[in-house]
Amino acid sequence: MAETGNQRDLTKGEKTKYRLARAMKECMKSTSVENITVKQITEECGLTRQTFYRNFLDKYDLINWYFDKLLVKSFEHMGQGKTVYDALVKKFTYIQEEQTFFAAAFRYDEQNSLRQHDFELILEFYENLICEKSGKKAGENIHYLLEMYCQSSIYMTIRWVTGELTCTPEKLAQTVVDGMPGKLAEVFVKLEILN
Hints:
This protein has 195 residues and is an all-alpha fold. It has helices at residues 5-8, 12-28, 38-45, 49-55, 59-79, 84-97, 99-108, 113-134, 140-161, 169-178, 182-190. The radius of gyration is 18 Å and the shape is elongated. It starts with a helix and ends in a 5-residue tail after the last helix.
């Protein structure tokens, strides 16, 4: 596999972590997260258990690390959107490309740490967007509306990723936009990020 510009810029340690993550993803195709062993992961990518443990505490640490990388990347895609709808389509399209991993990660997440992390990132994204467009921080009422909106958005995203809900990224984005509280929608329309 040829290296892209981004892959060439990674440190040796990061390349090893991504190699382990690719192996984990491959294992997830046929085995539930709970049943995947470190031995399976290392055999899949041709690395040693010692190498695995130099990089991660356990398979869940690996999942959390990779999940974080994917979420950050999905928000980079989201940031390229001109409107909320556009941003959501970009995020959902990216998530769809990594659907196997996201579905398995959300299924294993008993403590909701992944959901919480996604919530924190999406809330920060919207609050930064409001601040950037308006020149001031969102007020308390808008903050609470954003919290409700982000929680419901994540709920729908997880249902979609795990196959409970089947639709295109565009349809999911439209559903999430349509579910936005009216007062929040008014703010986004004024900021010209909701059409």
